[in-house]
Amino acid sequence: MSRRLVVSTMCAAGALVLAVSANTAVVGAAQKAATATSAAAPSRDAGIRAGYHGVKLAGSADYVVGVDAPTPAHHNVQYIDFFPRSGLTVTTNQVVDFNWDTGLSPDSLHSATLLAAGHTAMTDAQANPVIAPDEGGEAPPLYIPAPTFLSTNPPPGSGAPGACGDPATPCAFDGAHDLSSGATGAGSDFFVKITAAPASPTTYVFHCRVHPFMQGSLTVVPSGTATSSAAAIGAAAAAQYTDDTAGILHAIDSANHAAYVTNPDGSHHVTISAGTETQYAEALEMMPQNVRVAPGDSVTWKATEKAEIHTVTFPEGQASASVDPLSPPVCEVGSGPDTAAGPSGCTSGLPFDELPVDPAPHGPATLSGPGVVTSSGILSGIPGSGLPSEHTFTFDGAGVYTYHCKIHDGMTGRIFATPSPGYWNVAGDGGVFAHGMASFAGSMGGTHLNSAVVGISPTPDPGYFLAGADGGVFALGDAAYAGSMGGTRLNQPVVGISSTPSGGGYRLVAKDGGIFAFGDAPFFGSMGGSRLNAPVVGMATTPSGLGYWLVASDGGVFAFGDAPYLGSMGATHLNQPVVGMAASPSGNGYWLVAADGGVFGFGDAAYHGGMGGTHINQAMVGMSSDLGGNGYWLVARDGGIFAFGDAAFAGSDAGGPLNSPMVGMGGV
Question: Is residue 245 a part of any domain in this protein?
Answer without folding.
Answer: no
